[in-house]
Amino acid sequence: MEGYKNFFVHSLALVESEDIGEGTKIWAFSHVAKGAKIGKYCNIGEHCYIESGVIIGDYCTVKNGICLWDGIVLEDYVFLGPCAVFTNDKYPRSRNKNWELRKTIIRRYASVGAGAVILCGIDIGRYAVIGAGSVVTKSVPDFAVVFGNPAKIRGFACACGRVILKISRKSRAIARRVITCEFCSRVYSFDSGKFSWIGGPPLP
Question: Alpha-carbon torsion 106, 156, 134, 113, what sign?
């Protein structure tokens, strides 16, 4: 679209922010408010609203039908599936002038499935995977796979995105084990409920 340099804005989108990174694409019927920040090479789908104060890192994907509110931060390479829902007020009331903004951070390479609901004031860890339709009420550790209502940890994913460990209450108590991803050969340890990378190809 004419009038924008180094990034693309569809003719039916409204972009008021001047802080848009190189190579980013913003598609039809989306509105980026003044004061929002979007990094480079992001893809913002149709029918999205990005409020003033939102920070989106580089190489993020925001699929159709998502509203991001002040206080929401996406680090680099975050994926948000269609119609994922976010909030920023734990005790909402109409026209409440004394409401408290609760910040939510989605860490690097985390993926949020379609239609998931992310309540405010929490962190979604690096490489975490949120299942479609889940309701996430508390922070999610790095690499964790969570789903359900409320969402619970059901396993852990490799940095490549594959689920490589499924867990139950019993498996959380098992002594340390080592898991190798058969898709990318990264090596992880699982010890007393903590999952961490220990070898193989470096994490992106």
Answer: positive
